[in-house]
Structure formats: structure tokens, C-alpha cells
Amino acid sequence: MRPLRRRLLWTALGLGGGTAALGASLVSVLAPPLQRRDGLRADGRESPAPGNADAPGPGTEICIVAPPEPWDAASGIARDAPRTPSARSRCPVCGMFVARHPRWAAQVLHRDGQAQFFDSPLHLLLFLQAPARWRPGWQAADLPGRWLADHEDGHWVPLAQAHLVEGSRTPGPMRTPDLPAFADARRAGRHAAQEGGQVRPARALLQALPPALQALGPHRH
Questions:
Q1: Listed residue (102, 156, 113, 147) closest to 128, CA to CA
Q2: Where is this region: Disordered (predicted)?
Q3: CA nearest 217: which of 122, 75, 105?
Q4: CA–CA distance, 165 with 112 (Å, rounded to integer)
Q5: Where are the domains of the chain?
Q6: How many CA atoms lie within 13 A of 28 on its CB side?
Q7: pLDDT digit string (tens) for 128-140?
């Protein structure tokens, strides 16, 4: 390449000169964004799903960056007892870090002691509809431990005993409608009186989610 043409090319690319800088700039201009295994491009944007975006398939419905966490026998915590999510714990339904929203947290415990954490009660309920969608090989019958964090004090409450507020004006971690959970109907009713909504036993919502909440999942991430 003639010196004059080379200088013009460097100027157009905003470079002062040098073959190393030129090579790096050409790569960034000509090469497509790198694809990560979690479905995000290197620039942080979500990559479009291949083929039909509405077609079912593990490529768009399984979060490979939210693995279950094994039970540590040396922790002193019983295998069937609820655990505190770590800073690395992520929700398999939406990919969010669970520990950032402790009053919304939820978890399930597998028979083998593995724990899977969720950023909200709604995402736990969505997961329990079809666990194998997000965690291949898991079935609802293999998940005897099901816990929700009390929205007031953060204590773990068994799902079967919890009361949820449907239609609350308080948005969940995804900034969308969710289901604040409480240990008893009295506290749930106090929240509903302040933030709107109606108190529902968690068992009832486990059997059937309202269409408006069902439409919020699953997510791509």
C-alpha cells in the first residue's frame, strides 16, 4: 500500500499510526461480536435465538450460568434445611443474582442435597411447573424442599405454609408484577392493605398461576 493511502486509512479509522493499532481496529470493525455460552454477545447484548424464536428448545430456555449448588456436609447445615444464597447464586429462570434481593428470594432442595435459588416467588413457581425445562433431569417430585423468604424479615418459610399477595403494587426484582411472600395470612393482609392485591395461599398458586403472571415467563437471557 502506498504511504499516502496508508496514512489516509489510519486517519479514517481515528488512528495515529502503527500496524498493531490498525490490526486491532480492523478486527473490531470487520469481525462480528463474540458469542458467549450464556447467549450474550461480548458487548453485553442478547443474541437472537437461531431459527424460530417461538419454537421450544433448550437453547432458549435453559440458563447455563445458574448451576445448582451442592450440599456441603462440613457446613453444619442439615441437607434438607434452607440455605443462604451466595453472591454467585443465580436464578435459572431469569439469570439474576439472588442475594441482591434477599426479601424476594426462594429456593428448592433436590433429594441429593443440591440447592437451586430463585430471585422471586414467581420464578420458583414457574420453575416448578416444569423443572426439566431449566434443569435437565430434574422433576418436581425430586424437590421436597421448597422455601420462600418472608418479605418482611427474610426468614425462610416452607412454600406449603406461605401466603402470597397477588396484584401488589410492589414490583419484584425484574421490575414487573410478582408475589411477595409472608409466613402468615395476617402479615400478608397488612401488605395487601398498604400496597393492594389479594392474599392467596401459595398452594393455590402452585396449582395454577393467573394468566397475567404466567405470561411473564419463561425468559431468554
A1: 147
A2: 38-59
A3: 122
A4: 32
A5: 1-31, 36-61, 63-214
A6: 9
A7: 999 999 899 999 9
Question: Which DSSP helix (H) or strand (E) runs through 153?
Answer: none
- Judge whether residue 108 has pLDDT over 80: yes
Contact yes or no for 157/150 (Cβ under 8 A)? yes
Phi–psi pair at 187, nearest 5 degrees: -70, -40
Classify strands 115-118 and 156-158 as parallel, antiparallel or unpaired: unpaired
Q: Which three cell numbers mark 153? A: 424479615
Give the range with max mean pLDDT: 56-65, 119-128, 207-216: 119-128
| DSSP characters over 12-72 | HTT--S-HHHHHHHHHHHHSPPPBPTTSBBTTSPBPPPSS-TTS--HHHH--TT---B---
C-alpha cell at 135: 434443569
Provide CB contacts within 8 A for 152, sequence distance 6+.
103, 182, 187, 191
- The pTM of the whole model exceeds 0.85: no
Nearest to 212 by CA among 182, 176, 162: 176
Helix (H, G, I), strand (E, B) or coil at 161: helix
| Cβ–Cβ under 8 Å, residues 33 and 43 | yes
What are the φ/ψ torsions at residue 36 (nearest 5 degrees)? -95, 165
